[in-house]
Design goal:
Blueprint lengths: L1 E7 L4 E2 L1 E2 L2 E2 L1 E4 L2 H9 L7 E7 L3 H22 L6 H27 L6
Antiparallel strand pairs: 1-2, 1-5, 1-6, 3-4
């Protein structure tokens, strides 16, 4: 998902209509940007795009990163048997498990649609 904001070049501030900033949340950057700039002089306005994630998307991404780190450390564990290495591996595994638990709890609390 993306937060798309219409910015006035003169003030470098978000464009406002009746005191409300023009900010649109969308997953289609091209279409939304073209709609915001329609009938506006492109020298006076620009579109600012910021990507953001939901909690679930962040959990999935972070779990994937930790999974890759744990896999790498387990491979290194074949040659590096130090206590520090083992502690780091254990810590990352606990973090990964906590993320997975939170993700499963989040998925369990989501409403289920029956079609």
């Amino acid at each position: 998902m993306y937060r798309i904001t219409l910015i006035e070049n003169k003030t470098n501030q978000p464009y406002e209509i009746d005191g409300h900033k023009v900010i649109i949340i969308s997953d289609n950057i091209d279409y939304t940007s073209s709609m915001l700039l329609r009938n506006r002089d492109p020298r006076n306005y620009r579109v600012e795009v910021e990507e953001f994630m939901t909690r679930k998307e962040w959990l999935i991404k972070r779990h994937r990163e930790l999974d890759a780190q744990v896999t790498q450390l387990e491979y290194e564990r074949l040659t590096n048997r130090s206590a520090e290495h083992k502690a780091l591996l254990t810590y990352l595994k606990k973090q990964r498990l906590a993320l997975k638990t939170e993700l499963l709890d989040l998925e369990a609390s989501e409403p289920v649609s029956v079609n």
